[in-house]
Structure formats: structure tokens, C-alpha cells
Amino acid sequence: MLNELHIENIAVIEKADIEFNSGLNVLTGETGAGKSIIIDSIGAVLGERVSRELVRRGADKGRVTAVFELGNAEEQWLKDNDIDPEDELILQRRISADGKSSCRVCGEPVSAAQLRELAALLVDIHGQNDGRQLMDERRHIDYLDSFGALQQDLEGYKAEYSKFSSIKKEMSRLSMDEIEKERLSETLKYQIAELERAELKEGEKDSLVARRDLLRNSEKLTEALDAAYDALYGGDENALSMAQNAGYFASRAADVAPELQEAADKINSAAFSLSDAAELLRDFREGLDFSPQEYDNLESRISLINRLERKYNRDEDSLIAYLDECRKKLDDIEYSDDRLAKLQKELAAQIKTCRKVGEALSEKRKAAGKELQKRIEKELKELSMPSVRFEVNFEPVENENGFDAKGIDTVSFLMAANAGENPGKISKIASGGELSRIMLAMKNVFAENDPVSTMIFDEIDTGVSGIAAQRVGEKLYTVSGGKQVLCVTHLPQIAAMADSHYLISKEERSGRTYTEVRRLNREGRQRELARLHGGDNITELTIMSAEEQLESADKFKKTVIGEKV
What we know:
By secondary structure, the protein is α/β, with parallel strands linked by helices. It contains 21 helices and 15 strands. It has helices at 35-45, 72-80, 112-119, 128-135, 140-147, 151-174, 178-198, 204-216, 218-233, 239-256, 261-287, 292-312, 316-334, 336-382, 426-429, 432-446, 466-479, 492-495, 522-534, 540-559, 561-564; strands at residues 2-10, 13-19, 24-29, 61-69, 88-96, 101-105, 108-110, 123-126, 389-396, 409-416, 424-425, 454-458, 484-488, 500-509, 512-519. The strands form three sheets. It has a six-stranded antiparallel β-sheet with strand order 2-1-4-5-6-7. A six-stranded mixed β-sheet has the order 8-12-13-3-14-15. Strands 9-10-11 form a three-stranded antiparallel β-sheet. A hairpin with a 7-residue loop joins β10 (409-416) and β11 (424-425). The chain is elongated and about 130 Å long.
């Protein structure tokens, strides 16, 4: 549930703090007072796209902060994103005057995409765009699956459809005309022969380069080896003979002074180490066999490997793997007819499987469709549309296989608003006021399986008046028994049903426009309902009429109070 909303330097709002409550929260005010800005601010803090025009003129940045109650789903999201949970869930969005923005959750920086992911667990905003989505027939099958809780069945079907797609893809890869097959076969044979002649070995290039560098510096290496060996073992005054002499005399000294034995042992050990080192230098020097022919061979081999790497745009190890890949491709081509025949049988079997699983899914969809039809018609009758007929229409998928990625069904929602009419597309049949009620009914039914705890309705009252408006208000109040509802409205019938009523007003000071948000008491609600009825001409009679409307709303609330406890 949304508990608090802080808005600072957003459009005409310099600063506003709103404390929302459970139940039905209604926002009213004159056109242009800033009601939509509050909804836009909520959208911004939930990760929706923003622009620098949202920042109040003259301010370097705008900021929106929202405080939500922390539920289990949100707490798990915080853990998954390495954010320490707190007692409350605090979301913040800052928008700079240059158009840049930053997002934070519980003080930790997050991306707008992360914020939108979290927002999906918190709030469902219903605006004009949502209405268009509900009328988009391409999405009707998704709404039906969600209503029927068929996600697991759909995933099972999708797994089978994925196998079908993989077989089709493999067949497409193997299917080519004879000219293309011959061309590719010749290319692969040439590449295989070239790579096989190279006889590449893993890690060969590194060892070749190391040997070449050794040969390239052979003169310096020989000089260094000779000098080192002479210092260790050449001549009478070499390091080894001097160490051996020192060890001899130290041992004699140790015979007289035993505490010197350790020093003698270390000197003798050093002499042995020097002897080993001298042998290593000698063996390495004698093993050197530098020849111009070897150097030329190394250069040729390295040049060949470099040329192949450039030609195939692969390193040495990848070339070895590419050779195996080419052999496999050639085998596929040479045995493609056999492979295609086998895949054709697999495809035929998988088509049967997809149809079988799709038919099982379709049966569950049709059962869910009947239930959805009853639920929507019930909702619409409660919204003063007694003669409405709502249908979930099923048509088979029209392609050669009779199924697609979503199953064997094409689903569309149809309705007839009046008795005697044939059902048709919602967008073509319904008037503006009817569309508003249809959207509310559908939203209410589909929201039952939605975990979000807050629903926001913006412009849900478009084209609605009179008794229909009263029914919409009653429906919104009933919905708010299970979810927190925020609603922007121009209708007194809806405003009268509020648990919490907020007035959005604006005024000019020093040539600037300022918006104020305040929660109304009973007297304030009377005056605002009177204004919604008759404009600025508020009289004692309109005040009495507003109070009568509030009392009528109170009576209705008492009839459903058990649902809201």
C-alpha cells in the first residue's frame, strides 16, 4: 500500500506531501489544477520514462519520493537485488533540469528498469493506454490465461512448441537446392584440406614464438652462458673452487670449535649448489644447436599460422575447433537427405504432440472463458449495463499446422451493449461511457489474480454520468475492500464514495502558479461536491444536496462494510 507521497519541483507543484490511506482515495480539483501531475509523479517514481519538462521552471531538479508498506514479494525483490530490507519500502526518483534522472530504493541506487520491475509488484495504474491494451485483441489470450491461472499449462505447451521450432529450424538449415549444396560442399572440402595440411596443435604457436625468440638472441645468449660458466667453473680462481676451499677450512675450524659446524655445512651446501648450476649451464650450452635453417622453418611455420588466423578470423585454438565444425557441416550436407527424412518423421510426431497439448490447453481456456464471461457480465450489470452480453470468442489458428506459439486458439473479447444486438469488437460497439465501465469491469476481474495492493484509476469516469456514475463509484468502493484504490475524478457520485478525499487546487503568487494538496474534512467534502455539481455557484441548497449525497454514500458503505473489514 502507498502510504506517503512527497513531490518537489514537479511541474506546477513546488512542494506537496500526501498521506494516503487504505480504502478508496479520491482526488478532485478544477481542470489544470495538477491532478494528472500527481499521477505522473507516481509514474515517475515507479520507473516510467520522464523528461526535463517535468521539472518546475526555474528549479535545477525535481524529486518524487514514495513510501510503501513492505510485503513478502517486495522483500524478496530487495534480497534478490542485494538491498537490505527496512521497515518501509522507500522509492525515490530525481529528475534534473537537463533531463537526466536517478533512482533509489531504500537509499540504494537502481536503474529505471529495476524500478519498473519492483513497481509491477506494487501498483497497477489504469490510464488511457491501459484501455487501449484491454481492447487490443492480440492481448486478449494473455488476459484469459492470467484469469484462468493457466501459466503452468501454457509453459508446458511452450516447451513442446520450442521442440517443434527447433526441428523446423534444423530442417531449414539442411534444406537447400543442389547448386547451393554443391557450392557449400566444395568450400568446406577446401577449408578442411587447408586446415588438415596445417596440422595445427593446441599451444603450438606460443612454443614456436618462444623458440624463434631464443634463436633470434642466440649470440647474446651464448656470450652470457659462457661468461656465467667461466665465473663458476673456469680458471683457477672460480666461484666453485673458492667455495670448496672455504668449506674445507671451515670444516677444519669446526673440528676445534664445534659451534662453527653449521657455517661449514652451509658453505659446503652452497658449493654443491654452485656445482649443480655450473652443470646446468654447461648442458644447456652444449645442447644449443643454432642453425639458419631452423630459424627459417620457425618463421615459415609462424607465418602460416598467422595467415590462417587472419583468413578465418580465429585464433589458433579456435581454428582447431573450426576444423571439426567444418567436418560436421560436410557430413550434414553429404547425409542431409537421410537426416531430413529422419527430421521429417520427428516433425510429424512433434506436430501431433503440439496439437494434443494445445487441445488440452484449449479446453481449459474455454472453461475459463465461460467463467470470465459470467464474471464480466455480472460486473457490468452492477455498473448499470443490464442488457450487456460479453463473449470470449475462440477461433482456430489459421496456418498449415493449426497452432502457433500460444496454442491452437485465437481469442477475442466481444460484446453487445444492448439487447438484440450481435456481439462485436468492444472498440466498435461501445460508447465512451460504456467503454469506461467495461474497462473498470475487466480491470477489476483481471486484478483478482494480480498481487499488487494498490490500484490507480485516471480518467475512469470519461463519458459517464448519472446513475452509471453512481454505480462506478460504488464499484470502486467495493474494489477498495481488497486493494487500496486511488482515483482521479470529476464526478461527485464517485467523490462521495471516498474514504479519503483530497482536493487539488492552484493559485498564482508573484506571477507563478502553485498547486496545493489537502485532505478534506466533512465540511470541505460538502463544498467540493457542491462545486462538482454546480461549479463556483455554491449555495445553501447545493451544500444540502452534497450532504445528502454523502449520507447516501454512507448508507451504501454500511451494506458492504463486512467486505471492507
